[in-house]
Amino acid sequence: MIFEKRTERIIVPMFFMVALFAPLFLESNSFFVGKVTTIIILSIFVMSLDFLVGRVGLITLGHALFYGMGGYLFVILSPEYEAVNFWVYTLYICSISALIALVTGAMILRTKGVYFLMITLALSQMMFYYFFDSLEYGGGDGMFIFVRPETSIFGLSFLDLDDPQHFYYLALFSLFNTLVFFKVVLRSRFGRVVEAAKQNPDRTEALGYNIFAFRLTCYVIGSALGAYAGFLFALQFGFVNPSFFTWEMSGMALVMSILGGSGTIYGAILGTFTYEGLQYFFEHLTKEWLLFMGSAIILMVILLRKGIAGYLEKLLEK
Amino acid sequence: MQTILRTPKSAAISLGNSMTTELFFVQLINGIQYGLLLFLIASGLTLVFGVMGILNLAHGSMYMVGAYLVWYFFGVTGSFTVSAVLSALIALALGILIERVLIQRLYNRNHLDQVLLTIGMIFVFNSLQSILFGNDPYGVAVPDALSGSIPFTDNSSYPIYRIFAALICVAIAGLLYYVVSHTRLGMLIRAGESNREMVEALGVNIKVLYTTVFALGVMLAAGSGIIASPMSSIVPGMGESVLITCFVVVVIGGLGSIKGAFVGALLVGLVSTFSAVLLPSISNMIIYISMILVLLVKPQGLCAK
């Protein structure tokens, strides 16, 4: 069983069951389907960040670099008025992002702690300014995606990305796969070494493992999945702009992952839904929603020691 | 939101637009003045991190608080000095309050919880700013006594207030140096940086020390906001842009090192003012490029212990 904790075995199936059937009771193009799709896509992004921050111990404030890359790579690579194949481009985007992560990671993983945090922030800020100042890629306005990709595999097509409901299921399917993928990776021998390296780097190194290589691999994996989330987000809204790269984006994802329960992986879903749910609630309640949002975050960090997942685990585990 | 604390490109009124000796000196003064201001903000950040191990992301918000308060009191009292003193006192009280009510609960938690808490504080302060003062940009008039310009050469001059601001920054930096290296409080600060448990074991009330240091950090940030207010516009989001620049400064210098913050601030100040003239196409990026270069050579910053 890849889900080790009782809480996961209760929460995860419950979430996916509700998520699977909920849209059947809603109109296909209703507001909620779109909103929840966005939150699901964000959950993928937050989950990939939680893997890096909570499990590998790479506290980055520049994860948005890959979120933006996912969107921009698609716009840059694909022809403007022609539907390309979704799966092929997913492969392209993830591999190129992985390559970028490999090169940058090899340079920056030498730094540790706050210095790593700052250098990742610097990289994403640089990309922000690069695209913000570029005339070729639309500057601060960004660029539109005019045609969504088609999704046929060997000539068989069962998903239409222009249909919000289909897009919703694609996002949900991706979230599920991401979750299972991370769980499998973390339970493997590889994942055990990563865990050991986080807890005690010196001893793990002494056992003969090359920690740097393990961390770099994780950085590449997490970044590629972060880029995939950015790609999906760009497809859902049909545009990319430099705001994808902002440190606020990285910071918000970090907030969501800590809120959900850092290092729990499934907590990313809880954190993202809680954050977005609260924001939606407060936004409709008052113009000054930010005050309530900030206060809610402060209260939660003081009251919940290990995020929402930690709280649920305290209730549900024996 | 993504505007760097305004670099004083327009400070000098210069008719020649090539990089003449004259323009070079004007930019040099601009760079030093901007760097000194950055140092003042960054010193609080690095002090709090060095002594308490807390990465205060809301540090930029304190800068914003200082600027908005001085604008508000200036409107009420009409005197810059009075408003500056009032704002600084409120900032001090705010620092003590925040440390006592919030920060103190998180000393035994990990850094991530502190990040989350201080991001929550950014939200609260931004929202309070919008509720209390609205979202229009404001400006504070330069005090009358300091409003003139010093003629520089035949066709350029330099505003007196900027020179005054630079001198104030130097004075505060000197005071800070004196406090840290020659007083009992400074001794405790240095001791707290190197060995927390030992300081506590020797009978020092570490809680009071932490509250003092945090309040001092808030005072430095708010004080910079007060000093900067006549030179830059007071706008929503000004805290965040300053925060990021300050992080770059303290990381270049080496986190926790006040000397490092000084070196880093001058470097960032000079690099960003000169690049605005010489390399306008990458001037936004240049401080990040400098930081990456520094970290690739010295992964712990320039003045790492």
Can you offer a commentary on this structure?
The complex is a heterodimer of chains A (318) and B (305). With 318 residues, chain A is an all-alpha fold. Chain A has a domain at 37-249. Helices cover 71% and strands 1% of the residues of chain A. In chain A, strands 1-2 form a two-stranded antiparallel ribbon. The radius of gyration of chain A is 19 Å and the shape is globular. Chain A starts with 5 loop residues before the first helix and ends with a helix. By secondary structure, chain B is mainly α. Chain B has one domain (27-135, 158-297): ABC transporter involved in vitamin B12 uptake, BtuC (Orthogonal Bundle). Chain B contains eleven helices and two strands. In chain B, a hairpin with a 5-residue loop joins strand 1 (149-151) and strand 2. In chain B, helix 3 runs antiparallel to helix 8. Residues 1-16 of chain B have low confidence and may be disordered. The A-B interface holds A 53, 59, 107-108, 110-112, 114-115, 118-119, 121-123, 125-126, 128-130, 132-133, 246-248, 251, 254-255, 258-259, 262, 288, 290-291, 293-298, 301-302, 305 and B 1-2, 49, 55, 57, 102, 105-106, 109, 111-113, 115-117, 119-128, 130-131, 240, 244, 247-248, 251, 255, 281, 284-285, 288-289, 291-292, 295-296, 299-301.
Helix content of chain A: over 70%
In the predicted model, the low-confidence regions of chain A spanning at least 5 consecutive residues are: none
Average pLDDT reading of chain A: 90
Termini separation of chain A comes to: 19 Å
CATH architecture name of chain B: Orthogonal Bundle
Work out the strand percent of chain A. under 5%
Structural class estimated from helices and strands of chain A? mainly alpha
State the main characteristics:
heterodimer; A: 318 residues; mainly alpha; two-stranded antiparallel ribbon; 13 helices; 71% helix; B: 305 residues; ABC transporter involved in vitamin B12 uptake, BtuC; two-stranded antiparallel sheet; 11 helices; 2 strands; 68% helix; cell membrane (chain A); transmembrane helix (chain A); plasmid (chain A)
